[in-house]
Each structure stands twice: as structure tokens, then as C-alpha cells.
Fold:
Amino acid sequence: MINLIQRSLRPLLVIVLILISVPFIFITTGPVFERNPVVGHFGKINGHDVTRDRFSQVQTSVYVMLTLQYGQAVPDNSEIQRQVQAETWKRLLLLEKARQIGLVVDDAQVLDFIRSMPALQKDGQFQPDRFANMLKYFQQMMGISENRFTETLRDELTVEKMERLLASPIQISPKDVEGQFNQIYGAVTVSTITLPFSSYLSQTTATAQEVDQEYKNLIDHDPSLRTKERRRVSYIFYPAPAVAEKKDSAAAKDKDEARRQIGEKALEFALALEPEPDGSTKRGDFAQVAKSHNLTVATTAAFAVDETPASLPPSPNFNRVAFSLSNEHPTSSVVDTPAGFYVLKLEEITASQPRPLTEVKSQLEDRIKKRKALALIKQNGAAAADVIRNQMAKGVPFRSAAAQLKLSVETLSTFVPGDSKLGSDPKLDLVRRIAAGLKTGQPSPFIPTAAGGVIAVVDARQAPDRKTYSQMEQHLQTELIGQAREQALNEWVRLASSAPGTSLPPMLTQKAE
Structure:
């Protein structure tokens, strides 16, 4: 059934997935397989080796689903790659468990899922041409066939079903919810001790030898000690009307429709640059393809990732995509900006270079002194918190215990920790979070902050005003259940990973850099 639908969509025109309600612009720079190749050993499940192809297949599915969820390509960095690898392993375990118990997702369920995707609807109706465009995008930009795409969706539904089976029995008792609600929405009076960072910083020094060693240790990978990498890119620009703020007027719909049509043209140009996945065509020449579309190519001067290219309006998307391009994948897909749509081509990279020690010496001295001050304040703060906790256990009041250490106490005005209307003062925000987890009369450990550190105690807590915060109790219950189920799933993954005949891939056992 799914294949029949896909074949019937082949003749439809390519359109861009820019919706009135859900923006859907892709900014990836190349196929997932090539950007993040999977290498090495991939673990065992139930005594069977996980093959490279199987791991790569599921990993690509993770990237696809993240792209569909967020409407843009997944950023390419080591932290996200590790998270994707962990999610890949989790899905492999869940899919294997689903196979064991005979859990299946049929074609009708996959079709319903496709038809319900917001990015494929207009005015509540499924749009086949948008699905056709989505398929072409994944084929050309990520090397994914039609069948693989729909199997990815089938796997996604299978994983969701399996997670529900495992986690749905997990519940939170009303008593636990009430206890958390009282902690978060009961008004509290809190006293604090603050250890100022400045007083500890003044006690530290940095020697010439320490500065020299710091420079040698960091010069190869610390951006602040190096010149900025700079790039030149060529681009095609498609000016477009701004996204309409109001969606209920005819004028707004006309405006967004005009923007969508311009986006179509930008995507057609971007796809014309991409080679076919089967290798039947090579990557198109940027200038020649532009000429065939009667478009003018412009080129920026060299710019850094945090600089706006001369003569262009500021756009984080433009810069982010420009610095994700590589010599292997020099052209982008459509870059959505408030002014319109760009398609980019990398022209030149000026690599980052080390700055001389004389230029960064004071910076390194400050860093060393701050690190020493932080270590000192953590040591003294933890010792003070231990003394105060022991003294309070003997019945000594918080203020008296602080006085013995010659520390000042400040009592804050009564507030509700969970009240979102409170100000954004960093200290109050920290104390709110501390108070939400403390029992009355219980001192906190020492909590380091950018300004030094805090020790706090809840002097008094009132019963919550349920009239004011009635809706938050149900919200809290939902949140707590979600957290408990997520923890249960993580525990299931841990146990399944350590079961006889099952072992984690080495990439997930190695410590992150």
C-alpha cells in the first residue's frame, strides 16, 4: 500500500515544505552516512553481533526523525553524535524486544502517521505533493530510498508502541504528587549565606611557569587563544515577504503563500546541485546551474561565524550553514532567513591560527587565578556547609551557626518557588530551585555560583494556595509521571544492555571527550 502511494506521487512537482503554521526548511550539508560514518564494533544483542549496516540504518533513522521533528537538519558536533549513538542503541534494543513479542505496525498505521504529520497538511488536509517533496529531499540530501523512509516511520511507530508497553504501568502516587506540590508551590521564607567570589579571587596568583604551561595545553583547541576561522561563500538569494504574524486574515495567507512559492524556487535550485544517490549524476556546478536558472551569483568577503557578512542583513541561519559546509559538501540546501531564502556554496576557508603568548598572557593569568579561586571557594564553602549542618543537628539555629564561622546571613522576602511571575534575578532563581528541594529547617549543601556560592535553609513553608495554583497540580502530576517513565525506560535500557549475550558498542563505553 505504501509503495503504491509513493509510485503515484512520482510525477508531482517538487515544492518546498514551508507551511503557514510549521516552517520546514532543511539546512543540512550532506548525507548522514558521509557526515557521521559509523566505524568499529557495534555491540551484541542476544548473542548476535549488531552489523555495521544495521547500526548505520537505525542511526540514519534517528537523524531522519530528528529532522522531521525540528524542521531542520541536526547540528553536527561530537556531543550530539554521541547522543544520537545512544538513541540508536536504545532503538535497536526496543526493536529487538518488539520482534521477540511479535509487535508489528502495519501499512495502514504507517499511512495514518504520514497523513497526520503537520508538515504535510494544509488547512487540516493531507497534501500529497508535500510528501513527494519530502521523499525527494531525503533521497537527494541523505541518500535514503523511498522504502527506507517508510520503514523508518514504521520503526518509529514500533519504538513508540514498545516504549508505551514498558512505561505505561509506571504511575505516581497522589501522596508523592502532593508532597512535590507542597514543596514547589508553598510560600517559603529562606535565609542564605553568600560567599563572594571576589574575596577569594584577590587571594590567588598565577606564576609565569603556570601561564606558559596553560598556553601549551590549550593553544591547539581553545578558540579564545586562536584567530577566528573565516570563510567566503557564494550565494543565490531569493528575496521574500516576511512571515505573516497573524494567520487568520486573507492578506496574511496571501503573503505566506507568496513566500512559499519563492521557497519552492529556492529548493528546486538547491536540489539541482545535488547528485543522485545512485551516482548517475555528479554534483552540479554552482555557477552553471545558477546561469541555467537565470540567477546572479554573489560572493561575500571573508567573515567569522559570529560576524555578519558585509552588505547582508544579520542572520544566524546564514552563518550557521556557511560554517557547516565543507570541501566534500560545499553547497547547502535552502537557508531560511527573515529576508528570504539563500543557497550557499563554500569558496574559501581561512583556517584559525594560534595567537602569540604575549597577546593572551593576561587572559591566561585571569583564567588560572579564577580556577584557583573557584577551587578555594568550593573547599571553604563545603567545609562551612558541613559545620552548619552538624551544628543545626545539635539544635543550633542557622544564624547562630553562621555567626560562629563569621558568616553573614540574609533572609529573603517570602516567595513561592514555583511562581513563574517572580523576577529573573540569578540569585533568587538559584534559591528558588534550592528551596523547592529542601525540607523546612534543612540546610542545603554549598552551591557554587558565578558570583561565589550559596548555602540556604528554608526557615518556614506555608500550605500552597490551591486556588491560585490549581492548574499546576495536574501539570506537575503529568510532568512527574513523564519523568518516572523516562527513568524506567532508561533503567530498562541499562538492564537490557547488561543481559547475557548483550554488550554495548565500545563507542558508548568510552568516556566522552
Notes: Confidence is low (pLDDT under 50) at residues 1-38.
